Amino acid sequence: MAVYFFYGDEDYNIELELSKMSSKLNPDFKSMSLQTLDNPDFSTLISALRTTPMMFGDMLIIINAEEYFTSNKNFFDDVELSEIEDALKNNPETLNIVFVLKLPRDENKKPDSRRKLYKILSKYNVKEFPTFKTYKTAEIAGWIKTQARNKDISLNDDAISLLIEQIGNNLREFDTELDKLKLIAYPEKKVTRKMVEEICISNEDLFGFADLIMQGERDKALLEFNKLLDKKHPLEILSAIQTMLRKWIILKTKSSLSPGELSKLTGQHEFVVKQTLQKLKNTKTADLVKLKENLYEAEFRIKSAEAIDIISEVECAIIG
């Protein structure tokens, strides 16, 4: 079949591509036709590359190769590299081999092209998977439309714009929200802005909720929490709030950075970053951290079945 080299800092797109490839394997023999190796040593790697597929169809071998490119010294010597190159040249027709290099997000790093392994892999099917820049909304919108089409739904442009405004460039989160939107739209296949507003808790809702807690207005915060319960399960609200709190803590602790740099760190639009920084102006970082710890503890107690009442557990975390 073919040899591939996938690299980049958008790991979710890499995962989607690998999933697409694995879906083409014979489902009856998938346990034997799909193999994943994490930075295997030479003997394990060369054995995998020389695998002869059996009678159950094509095979796919995924080789996570981060250490091959991050190690301070070459992972393989020249003799071993020569054997690897020879094995790739003589790759069986029914075998797909994919070398995967996931890079740190938003650090603009590339594989070291001076490494001999890179020079070998660059002769084959090389594909980069970069993170979408938050300001390149057209590219993000295009990705959302493609994913929606794969799920047999479509979104209005204003619905897509609202999703991007809320989520930024987190593709994994987009995919999760699209699954939810597909359910709420059923039996229709068209997703509207109103559906996005109903199913996806907005940054404004979450900030308003947390802001009331920070201001010491606990009664109002509890009322806001109960309003959110009309649309979401308590654990879903907890997860969303924790995600937002993590971003807010980053904004507070890294406030000396430019909006553009903060946008990269949080995956939010610069406009959202500026807006959130303004609202967080009088909020103490320690209060944000304390709230996050309380909510984490509540989430742990709920998931471990220690909580007698889920809603009361969250309310206590808010008051605490």
3D architecture notes:
With 320 residues, the chain is an alpha/beta fold. It has 17 helices and seven strands. Strands 2-3-4-1-5 form a five-stranded parallel sheet, sandwiched between helices. Strands 6-7 form a two-stranded parallel sheet. Helix 3 (42-49) links the parallel strand 2 and strand 3. Helix 7 (137-150) crosses helix 9, helix 11 (203-214) packs antiparallel against helix 12 (218-228) and helix 13 (234-253) runs antiparallel to helix 16 (285-303). The termini are far apart. The model has no long low-confidence stretch (mean pLDDT 86).
Give the helix/strand layout.
Blueprint: E1 2-8, H1 11-22, H2 30-33, E2 34-38, H3 42-49, E3 59-64, H4 66-70, H5 78-89, E4 95-102, H6 116-121, E5 125-128, H7 137-150, E6 154-155, H8 157-167, H9 171-185, E7 190-191, H10 193-199, H11 203-214, H12 218-228, H13 234-253, H14 259-266, H15 270-279, H16 285-303, H17 310-319
Parallel strand pairs: 1-4, 1-5, 2-3, 3-4, 6-7
Helix pairs in contact: 3-5, 7-8, 7-9, 8-10, 11-12, 13-16, 14-15, 16-17
Please supply descriptive tags for the structure shown above.
elongated; 320 residues; 57% helix
What is the global morphology? elongated
Largest sheet: 5 strands, parallel
**Radius of gyration, Cα only, in angstroms?**
24 Å
E-strand count: 7
N→C terminal distance: 59 Å
Portion of residues in helices? 55-70%
Strand order of the largest sheet: 2-3-4-1-5
Unreliable stretches covering 5 or more consecutive residues: none
Structural class: alpha/beta
The residue-averaged pLDDT reads 86
DSSP summary: helix tally: 17
